[in-house]
Amino acid sequence: MHKAVPTSLAALAMVLAAPAQADDLRTDVAADMPELMELYRDLHAHPELSFQEHKTAAKLAERMRKLGFEVTEGVGKTGVVSVMKNGDGPTVLIRADMDGLPVVEQTGLPFASKETATPASGVTTGVMHACGHDTHMTGFIGAAQLLVDRKDEWQGTLVMILQPAEEAGGGARAMLADGLYTRFPKPDYALAFHDAAAPAPAGTIGITPGYALANVDSVNIQVKGIGGHGAYPHTTKDPIVLASAIVMRLQTLVSRELSPLEPGVVTVGSFLSGAKHNIISDEAKLQLTVRSYSDESRKLLLDGIARIAKGEAIAAGLPEDLMPVIEVQEDFTPSTYNDPDFTEQLLASFGERFGEDRVATMPPVMGGEDFSEYRRADPDHIKSAIFWISGTPAPMLEALEKEGKPLPSLHSPFWAPDAEKVIATGAEALASAAMGLMPAS
Question: Which domain holds residue 53?
Fold first, then answer.
């Protein structure tokens, strides 16, 4: 039988307020760093695209087996689940994502990726860990080592998962569909971290209570028309004019239909139509990214897009059989919600462990993260939190402060985080949080 899981604010404060031996953990992390940095350089030099992480998964699965975990590979295609049962107590899930991006690396690092691969687009490209998933995996391994070395200091079940295809938005969903919560222990808590290109020293931790990242939808609109000669527009139904009207009207969804207190984004990222100066096309194609936080806001925006597209087509005089076709792509990523009470206690615990100058509350962002799926699968039972760790190297931060030189963002071919500080902080933060949630009786 599991030990009762703390759910109240006071109970969470009790188990998280006294982190286990910060100096000992930090000393052990420092001792592990040479081997961890060797692993990091290997992972960085050999990235793999979403759902192609075969070598990465096998390499890390073997490490987890050597640490004594029960390891299952191939969960959700290329995911890895490692379980360690250590007496009665809560179940804590720790997640790291594995996939790289179709980006040609330009960091100049001596271990820069030279890998190439062919994504779904069919165009062979360079591959890079431009989002820092290599630091996530290495910090994950570091945390696993710390927790194994301290099995007498915690009690419960540890479920550590290496997730595929975060960048494609389908990895977490694939693992859950493959029985993550039925074949393996369902967590009471879920934890993860993400590196950040932040205007703060490397190793600084930031957490956002409540909504932290957005719902992310990709929407395609096929705008139909009646083509013809550009000199005789009266004989046509111009899809470019119609699509332009749709683009302009879409702006009112956020400015006039969504509450001013509810964030939202509707961006038309692509507008394609026509092939020659004097030909009016019979089709235009729009590609949109739509961002929101609540499910209600998401529905309002998506319903509004469909209504506006059809309404503008009717206003343009198009017949029913030429109404726009709306496709909401299936790679939807739901918003990430950090349970506020759990998050506040992590903030307090990290502040005590790392010092208040290294821990801060962060504003939410409109990026997406499919870590959200793990809580969403059972929100009444699972408390979850993802936190940021700044990876901004000191020279980049100095250039920002002195010259106003912008930082390379995540997904940039120039993003080269201070990996050592991200990994050391991530390993210690994950291990200390897990131990605080699973105190030994």
Answer: 9-213+335-437
